[in-house]
Each structure stands twice: as structure tokens, then as C-alpha cells.
Amino acid sequence: MAWQGLTADEKANVQQKYVVEVMAPESFGTIIDNQGLDRSTPGSNAGTAMGAAIGSTAYVDRAINHGNYSGKTHVAAMLLGMLVGSALDRPAQSSYQFRYAIRLGNGNVIYQDTYSSTPFRHAVGVCVFTPSIDLAPEQHLCTQTTDTFKNSLGIFNVPTALNAPAGDRLSSPETPPTLQATETASETVSCKLGTLAPVKTSPEKCKLINGAIIND
User: Whole-angstrom Cα distance, residue 199 to residue 115?
Assistant: First the structure.
């Protein structure tokens, strides 16, 4: 949205200095609500217990039929049954479901579900990409406007005696000449000041800042 608000000349000015990646407004958004649900499952040793019971029962039956019961052998049969049955045990599993309400860059609100093995989630108010719900490395992406975008670059303001680089400071008169309020397209020129990139302005403004008019 911030990029679309620039004029063609402003876009060209930015692209002279940066590689611009324009993101679709539905590919990012701000989290406005989140809800979590613990879907973890406890562990189970049912397989081990069942294996021990089967091993014990089988040994006792054989011992009764043959009349040669041994306590040590009975324990060994139970341990063997536990070992075989442990393959059916189920370990505990941690699982958490989070449902995020996200206001997209285009103003629409969507709900997005994610699953995690940890109970930690994104906070309300953070900027994320969709549908991955990954944290946006540049958090100002979700609140950026054309004006804040231009201000962050600092390449749209005509240099003055206060903000020009040390080697390009200007000597401005105490009472600057009055400029006409309206300018036609034919009165716009490319003005270069020192080592700064050329900017589009009027011949009068270029002369005011001691700039040089160059051909495009």
C-alpha cells in the first residue's frame, strides 16, 4: 500500500538506490487476538502391563500342567512379556493448537490455525506473514504508510542548510525569494546538489539551493 501511494517519479527515485520488493497486502497482517488449546496426550504403559500379565499367565499354566513351578522362572517369564509388550506403549505427546485472528494489510480479518509442540505463541499486536504466521523481521511493515515510508528513506526532501551533508551545506539568504505557488510540468528539472542524487524540482528551487540543473 505504501508503494502504490508514490508517484512515478518518486518510485524511480527509490529504485535508483534500492531493490524494491512489493508485498501483496494479504500476505501479512497484525495479530488482533489469539486462542490456545492444549491437545497433548499422556503416555501409556498398557503394552508393558499386558505383556507381563500374558507372560505370567502362560508360565503358571505350564507349571501347573507339568508340576515344576519355579519362582525365578516365573519372574523371567513376566519380564519377557513386559519387554515384548513395551512395543505397544505410547509415549506422552505435547501438542498445542493456536487460532490467530489477523487483520491483513488490506483491512480484512482472517483466522489462521497453527500447531506447536510448545505452549508459546505470538503476542497480540505483532506483525506476521501469512499463512505461515512467521514473525515479520521488519515490524513496521504492518503500520507503514506512504508518508512513513518516504520519511524512513529520507530521499524526498530537498536539501537545506540544516540537513545537507557537511560538504554540501548551503548559504541561504535571510529572506528567500518568493516562489510561485503553481508549477507546470514543463518547469520541472533534474537538480543535482554535490554528491547527492538528482531530484525533481523547479529551476527556481534548484537555483535557491545552489544546485546544478542536469539533463535527464
Answer: 50
Q: What is the pLDDT of residues 98-153, one digit of tens each?
A: 999 999 988 999 999 999 989 999 999 999 999 999 999 888 888 888 888 888 77
Angle at 21 between CA 185 and CA 142, to 5 degrees: 100
Three-class SS string for 52-88? HHHHHHHHHHHHHHHCCCCHHHHHHHHHHHHHHHHHH
CA–CA dist 211, 125 (Å, integer): 45
Total-model pTM: 0.49
SS3 32: strand
**Burial letters for 109-148: b for 16+ Cβ neighbours within 10 Å, e otherwise?**
eeebebeeeeeebbeeeebbebeebeebeeeebbebeeee
